[in-house]
Specification:
- The protein has 254 residues and is of the alpha+beta class.
- It has one domain: Alpha-Beta Plaits, CATH 3.30.70.20.
- Helix content is 21%, strand content 19%.
- The strands form 4 sheets. The chain has a 5-stranded mixed β-sheet, covered by helices on one side. Strands 2-3 form a two-stranded antiparallel sheet. A two-stranded antiparallel ribbon has the order 4-5.
- The chain is globular and about 55 Å long.
């Protein structure tokens, strides 16, 4: 049942602002109560591969995303974090880049916690937000284990990467993919065995990692080229940790 912003705010008027903080345990519990997917092409399942061996940290993806989607200054749907990593065996130091964005999970914890169903998952796997329906409660922001959501400072509603779904539907690439000078980002249909993304993932199968696979969110952003030294350095950082297993998600169906 859809609930308008006005109706929700009316019902919540007698509740203090402090109540709009959901315990993480409650947010995680919603994982097993996913509502039906709607919209999108049910024959497709979009995913993104990011080849860290090709990323040079130029932030062209960050800039092009900001131009395309117009988030407030200082807020980003995608960004590249840079780390200085030292290999303990060789004592050599190198810069490592880590692009961050919404992981478009198969079990997105952000979706079932929304009290007004303003965020949902399409049949093609992309998680979207209806800014007109969202009441800005922040439940989805707290529920996301990847720190990929935020409350837009200007609109006061939830915001995040949606793979530039408006561009995909027009036959275009997401802004970040189109602008990547190193060709590090690859988006495609995981249900198509002949798609470019499937070829890349299959060719690098033993070197593919995802964020927090043990949470069973089944993220569909895949990282290639992660070194052991880098994994050790970022272990435990908020929104980050990797595992050599990737949960059998490649080629997943919706």
């Amino acid at each position: 049942m859809d609930i308008s912003r006005r109706e929700f705010l009316g019902k919540a008027a007698s509740v203090t602002a402090g109540i709009a903080v959901m315990p993480l345990s409650e947010a995680e519990a919603g994982l097993n109560d996913q509502p039906p997917r709607r919209g999108g092409d049910p024959g497709k399942r979009y995913g993104m591969a990011i080849d860290l061996r090709r990323c040079i940290g130029c932030q062209a993806c960050t800039v092009s995303c900001s131009v395309e989607n117009q988030p407030p200054v200082g807020q980003f749907r995608t960004i590249v974090h840079q780390y200085e990593v030292t290999d303990k065996a060789t004592e050599e130091t190198a810069a490592m880049m880590l692009p961050r964005l919404c992981n478009q999970c198969d079990n997105p914890p952000c979706v079932p916690v929304c009290p007004v169903q303003a965020t949902w998952q399409r049949k093609d796997g992309i998680v979207v937000v209806d800014s007109d329906q969202c009441v800005g409660c922040g439940y989805c922001v707290q529920a996301c284990p990847y720190d990929a959501r935020f409350i837009n400072h200007e609109t006061q509603v939830a915001d995040k990467c949606n793979f530039c779904v408006h561009r995909l539907e027009a036959g275009l690439l997401p802004a970040c993919v189109e602008s990547c000078v190193g060709g590090a980002r690859i988006i495609g249909d995981l249900n198509d065995p002949d798609s470019h993304i499937n070829r890349v993932l299959n060719e690098n199968y033993d070197d593919v990692k995802v964020l927090k696979p043990e949470l069973n969110t089944r993220p569909h952003v895949f990282y290639i080229g992660m070194t052991d030294a880098f994994i050790e350095q970022i272990q435990g950082e908020s929104g980050l940790w990797f595992d050599s297993e990737h949960g059998g998600v490649m080629g997943a169906t919706s």
